[in-house]
């Protein structure tokens, strides 16, 4: 093995700080949700504008991920990681100190921009630091558990901070995360010398990809508020298709593309991006509806609602570290991802049975445990295979595609499933609520809402089944039991992924 590929002796300590940074980014997608009502009241944000606290983050994060991934390849992953952490902390401080809505929206957009630099840098650092099969399995087991469970942890942390301190601390807490991670990165992270992309930045690709992804994510946001058939929504979707199609054309022509098409046209990586994106649609929809169900129907506090998701977090940790990591060296990735998404779909089918008077122990508990186990088992090999065998100079952008598929999936899930739930609720109310007394009956109002949640969760179950089918069909990589070497030559994929049925 070449000297520059010898494993770093401090890599396991470095993993702690990489995982901490990833947790900060992932949980920030949901930690603010719990605190939003308090922030809205404190800053005088209107109901029509409150979505921008969430949307400003997702637009910047989703739109700039590919750019951030390529910057990590060009500039060095450790450098990008540290700058991303410092920027994220500064943006969090500005948001926590916000004195008006515009200041909060701007801070959230800055968080998203620096998160788009930080997230692919973190994942690609793992890809280049852990090259031995058994170690890679353990490292990605930890990372997969955090990536899957971080959103649920955000709900818990958001509840604790909002209830016992105030909403500003859901942003200020990031400063502590970032400072610890920066100190750890400077001390323990040593990026392998080989593998930076020395080509010039593909500026047209950056502009087209960022504009296309921002337009796509914003389109789903407007679909949620304006409807799917509004002129603005349709116009945004058409614009995103044109921009992203032009991006694909440009990338096939330029010498040093932002996103080398070999990264996404690889059968396994393409299958992972698609199946992960679909799975996240279902998972984000579940968080949304169960949060509403627990707080509005079951009258749980924000804190209690957060803790209600703990069994799912536990299931994800077990699925990722004890099932996925242990079996990854023995079975093909599709035999983990396919069954994993299938188990998650079974859990979703149980959760779809919720009623106004459902018992947490009888319905939510088993459903959440199965969801966690399934998603944890599937996430772990997906995160590893998505960067397994990729050329060193492409590790950042390949990692960015993992995050992009999840971010776009989350945006689609929130908009699509919320629209379906609202439509089902309206339909049920139209056939069951007739008199003025009915309209004031809290039981009927709750039954209408729960019917909508149930319908949307059934759709999410179907989406998870589709994820399972894609994993079984597309993925044909062999067992990840060899060193993930990356020589940068044209024979890379055959070296790094030795058992692929072409």
From TrEMBL:
Coiled coil regions in record: none
Chief subcellular location: membrane
Database matches in SUPFAM superfamilies: MFS general substrate transporter
One annotated GO biological process: response to antibiotic
UniProt keyword list: Antibiotic resistance, Cell membrane, Membrane, Transmembrane, Transmembrane helix, Transport
InterPro entries recorded: EmrB-like, MFS, MFS_dom, MFS_trans_sf, Sugar_transporter_CS
CC per GO annotation: plasma membrane
Membrane disposition: Multi-pass membrane protein
Residue stretches making up the Major facilitator superfamily (MFS) profile domain: 14-480
Ranges annotated as spanning the membrane: 12-36, 51-68, 80-103, 109-128, 140-161, 167-189, 201-221, 227-250, 271-294, 306-329, 336-356, 368-390, 411-430, 450-475
Domain of life assignment: Bacteria
Subcellular location as annotated: Cell membrane
GO molecular function, one term: transmembrane transporter activity
UniProt-recorded name of the protein: Drug resistance transporter, EmrB/QacA subfamily
Organism for this UniProt entry: Actinacidiphila yanglinensis
């Amino acid at each position: 093995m070449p000297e520059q590929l010898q494993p770093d002796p401090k890599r396991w300590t470095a993993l702690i700080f990489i995982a901490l940074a990833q947790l900060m980014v992932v949980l920030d997608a949901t930690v603010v949700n719990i605190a939003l009502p308090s922030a809205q009241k404190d800053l005088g944000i209107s109901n029509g504008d409150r979505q921008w606290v969430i949307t400003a983050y997702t637009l910047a994060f989703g739109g700039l991920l590919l750019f951030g991934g390529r910057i990590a390849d060009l500039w060095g992953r450790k450098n990008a990681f540290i700058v991303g952490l410092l920027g994220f902390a500064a943006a969090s401080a500005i948001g926590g100190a916000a004195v008006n809505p515009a200041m909060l929206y701007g801070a959230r957009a800055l968080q998203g921009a620096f998160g788009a630099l930080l997230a692919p840098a973190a994942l690609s650092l793992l890809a280049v630091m852990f090259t031995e099969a058994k170690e890679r399995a353990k490292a990605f087991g930890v990372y997969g558990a955090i990536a899957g469970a971080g959103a649920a942890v955000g709900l818990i942390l958001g509840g604790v901070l909002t209830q016992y301190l105030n909403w500003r601390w859901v942003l200020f807490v990031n400063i502590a995360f970032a400072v610890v991670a920066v100190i750890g990165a400077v001390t323990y992270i040593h990026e392998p010398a080989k593998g930076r992309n020395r080509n010039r930045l593909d500026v047209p690709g950056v502009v087209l990809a960022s504009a296309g992804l921002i337009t796509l994510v914003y389109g789903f946001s407007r679909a949620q508020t304006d409807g799917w058939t509004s002129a603005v929504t349709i116009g945004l979707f058409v614009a995103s298709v044109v921009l992203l199609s032009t991006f694909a054309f440009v990338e096939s022509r330029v010498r040093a593309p932002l996103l080398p098409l070999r990264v996404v046209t690889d059968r396994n990586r393409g299958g992972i991006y698609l199946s992960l994106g679909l799975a996240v649609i279902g998972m984000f929809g579940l968080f949304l509806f169960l949060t509403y169900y627990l707080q509005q129907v079951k009258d749980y506090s924000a804190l209690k609602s957060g803790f209600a998701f703990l069994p799912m977090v536990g299931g994800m940790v077990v699925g990722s570290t004890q099932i996925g990591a242990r079996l990854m060296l023995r079975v093909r990735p599709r035999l983990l991802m396919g069954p994993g998404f299938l188990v998650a779909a079974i859990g979703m089918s149980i959760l779809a049975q919720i009623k106004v008077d459902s018992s947490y122990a009888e319905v939510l508990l088993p459903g959440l445990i199965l969801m966690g186990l399934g998603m944890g088992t599937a996430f772990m090999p997906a995160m590893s295979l998505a960067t397994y065998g990729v050329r060193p100079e492409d590790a950042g952008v390949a990692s960015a595609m993992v995050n992009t598929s999840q971010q776009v999936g989350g945006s689609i899930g929130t908009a699509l499933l919320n629209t379906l739930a609202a439509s089902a609720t309206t339909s049920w109310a139209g056939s069951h609520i007739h008199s003025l007394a009915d309209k004031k009956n809290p039981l009927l109002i709750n039954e209408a809402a729960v019917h909508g949640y149930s319908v949307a969760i059934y759709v999410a179950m179907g989406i998870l089944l589709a994820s399972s089918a894609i994993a079984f069909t597309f993925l044909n990589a062999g067992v990840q039991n060899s060193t993930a070497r990356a020589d940068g030559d044209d024979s890379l994929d055959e070296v790094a992924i030795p058992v692929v049925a072409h």
